[in-house]
Amino acid sequence: MKALQLSAPKQWEQIDIDEPSSPAAGEALVRIHRVGVCGTDLGGYLGKFPFFSYPRIPGHELGVEVLAVGEGVENVKVGDRCSVEPYINCRKCYSCERGLTNCCESHQTLGVMCDGGLTEKMILPARKLHPANNLSYEQSALVETLAIGCHAIDRANVTEKDTVLVIGSGPIGLSAIEFARVAGANVIVADLSQTRLDFVTEKMGVTNTIQFDGSEADIEKLEAMTQGRRADVVVDATGNHHSMRRALEMAAFGGRVVYVGITQQDLQFPHAPFLHRRELTILASRNALTRDFSRIIQLIESGVIDTDPWITHHAKFEEVIESFPAWTDPESGVVKAVIHVS
């Protein structure tokens, strides 16, 4: 059975692996149809993602078809089209006992800490499959990306009274924008790239955008949009430690700062003038919760969220090794690439 493996950073190999066996109790055998490519995959390819290990078969944004189910499986049946919740949790640790399955102490994300879906078929825990029979395989593959933004906005308890500044308008930033809008918030988007900001305006209807340049003008523009208050919630989706440090300066008094991007660098910021004086709350946001997946599937089905504009690039399985390097270039115009496996 064919699979694509990263043997080391920037080193793709097409390999043959064994066909999966029949699913055991609580498991399902699935056929992979679509795989979404996100920042984690790009970071793994470049050797810049902190939790990625090698050799590894990537792929965690998956649209799949159920081929067989094991004993006791009732949430899915053969033929179901599903989105995959790729966060494999132990169900035994203190985090899992409290329902914090997204930060299980033994957490394994498909395609990052264990092999993922860039292959033809795989066995998965059936509890990680979410039926999405009214969605296309492309839409099903994008549910996980949206779940990241959903969880980030939920972490900040965003309401219609809030002004939310999303810094970084890549796929994770876009997902945060979607759920800030679903919450009824006033949304402002900032990015270094005017091209990405144009996409946000043209495809998502967000008119309040700021092209950051790292100067004091960034704050002045934000204050001009917020009557001098700055943002009640700042979501940093860049993974850049300079941006993450500066996010505190963008927050209003009593504001919340959510870090949904990941950096391997230390974060340093002045305590007294920002964190203490403004009594800010800093929140980490990791992965998503099970409940987010069914909610997102319903929002796509109802037309509240439109994923079509997100997908800007496609590749067949056989084209990935040649196409992938270009997707790491911000100037390529890629927002979301989708790989057609089957």
TrEMBL record:
<dbReference type="InterPro" id="IPR011032">
    <property type="entry name" value="GroES-like_sf"/>
</dbReference>
<dbReference type="InterPro" id="IPR050129">
    <property type="entry name" value="Zn_alcohol_dh"/>
</dbReference>
<dbReference type="InterPro" id="IPR013154">
    <property type="entry name" value="ADH-like_N"/>
</dbReference>
<dbReference type="Pfam" id="PF00107">
    <property type="entry name" value="ADH_zinc_N"/>
</dbReference>
<protein>
    <submittedName>
        <fullName>L-iditol 2-dehydrogenase</fullName>
    </submittedName>
</protein>
<dbReference type="Pfam" id="PF08240">
    <property type="entry name" value="ADH_N"/>
</dbReference>
<keyword id="KW-0560">Oxidoreductase</keyword>
<dbReference type="InterPro" id="IPR036291">
    <property type="entry name" value="NAD(P)-bd_dom_sf"/>
</dbReference>
<dbReference type="GO" id="GO:0016491">
    <property type="term" value="F:oxidoreductase activity"/>
</dbReference>
<dbReference type="InterPro" id="IPR013149">
    <property type="entry name" value="ADH-like_C"/>
</dbReference>
<dbReference type="InterPro" id="IPR020843">
    <property type="entry name" value="ER"/>
</dbReference>
<feature type="domain" description="Enoyl reductase (ER)">
    <location>
        <begin position="10"/>
        <end position="339"/>
    </location>
</feature>
